[in-house]
Structures are given as C-alpha cells and as structure tokens.
Amino acid sequence: MEKFDMSSAANARASALADVIRDEQPKKTAKAKDEKPARKVGRPRSEKSRKAIVNAVNRMLLHKQASDLSIEAIAKKAGVGKTTIYRWWPDKIALILEAINANGANVPQPVHKSAGERLLWQLERFLRLLRGRNGKVIIEMMAQAQASPDALGSYYESFMLVHEENLAEIIETGKNAGAFRKDLDTAMAVDMIYGGIVYHLMSGSDELDEDFIARYPNEALRLVR
C-alpha cells in the first residue's frame, strides 16, 4: 500500500502561520516606494454566482449529509453549470467548507479591543460556528480529507487557515504589547487551542453547549498569559 504523505499539507500550513508571525514582528525596514502589489491571476468570481452556490450548499445541508451532496446537485440547485463550480473550487470538500465559513468566518475582528478581549471574541465565534449541524459537517469533511494530501489541503485552506491566521495574529499582537508571554510559541499555542476543540468534537462528546463556549476561551486565555 502506498504510504500516505502529509508533508505537503503540513508544510503549507507551517508556511502560512510563519508568514503571519513574521508580518507581526516589528518592522525594521520600510517598504520600497516603488513596490507594486502582486498581480492577481485567474478569472474573477461572479459574486452573484458565488452567493447562489454557497447558499445552495447551506440549504441542502439542512436536510442532507455532506456525503450525499454532489457537484451536479449543487450546480442544479444554484442554477449554474458544473464548470462554474470546478473553476472556483478544487473539490466538494473545499466548497462545503467555504459555505460553512461564509456563516461568519470573515467577520472583521474588533481591532479596538485588547489582545485578550480579541482572543476571547475569536474563540467564542469559532465555537458558535461549530455548533450543531456545522460541527457534524466539519468532522465529516475532516474524516474524508484523510484520504489524500489534496483533500487534506482543501480542508485546511478552505476552513482552518483563516481561523488559525486570525488567532496567530492576535497572539503575536498580544506578545508585542506585553499582554501575553514573550516566550510563547505562537504556532504551538494555535495548535493546542484549536486542537482541544477539534478533539472535543471528534471524541463524540456532547455538542458545544453554552457552558463549554463560556469556559473554553477563558482557559485558552490563561494558556497564553
């Protein structure tokens, strides 16, 4: 049997967090004046079509398991062609996870708050995102993603990346401000904090109830102080 290689997904994840950590370090040199932003490649999405596809996925998940969804059925429900979906998402896992993230993952953080308050806000929002149906779908997608490095990469890039980057940025900001421990390993802290939530879901424990949502962020805050 061919050995399963997770190195590409792991390297991509480590690189993404390293970028966040590096960007939050005090800048020693100014940007070159003539520096130009990177040019975006690829065909831009139609926002109307994107919303139709994402909404179709979320509606279908109300009465179907994620494994029962197909690209064909999603395209029909959204009123678009299959090629439109495949142009923007590499696979079903990436599409379903982006649809779940659309329920609140990209809400701007309250930058006027302290690092500690932002960490509490970030984790409470993440926990509420995983309640009920969403949590079950995430675990199902995570299990399916173990089948191949590409699927695992889709899971990470389409769901966890934005959450891990947000938390890493908050922790680095807190360290620079003296609110969190200077010797804290940011990447390891992110693993420990989100890992506890994922383990809770995968272990078959009770759903994320209000008591867990109230206590877990505060315990995570103790970890970084």
Which features characterize this protein?
225 residues, mainly alpha, Arc Repressor Mutant, subunit A, Tetracycline Repressor, domain 2, 10 helices, globular
Provide an overview of this structure.
Helix 5 runs antiparallel to helix 7, helix 5 (92-101) packs parallel to helix 8 (149-177) and helix 6 (115-129) runs antiparallel to helix 10 (210-224). It contains ten helices and no strands. The chain is globular, with a radius of gyration of 19 Å. Mean pLDDT is 81; it is low at 1-7 and 27-42. The termini are far apart. The longest helix has 29 residues, at 149-177. Helices cover 64% and strands 0% of the residues. With 225 residues, it is mainly α. Among the domains are: 45-88, Arc Repressor Mutant, subunit A (Orthogonal Bundle); 115-224, Tetracycline Repressor, domain 2 (Orthogonal Bundle), CATH 1.10.357.10.
Quick summary of this structure?
This protein is mostly helical and 225 residues long. The protein has helices at residues 7-23, 47-60, 71-78, 82-88, 92-101, 115-129, 133-145, 149-177, 186-202, 210-224.
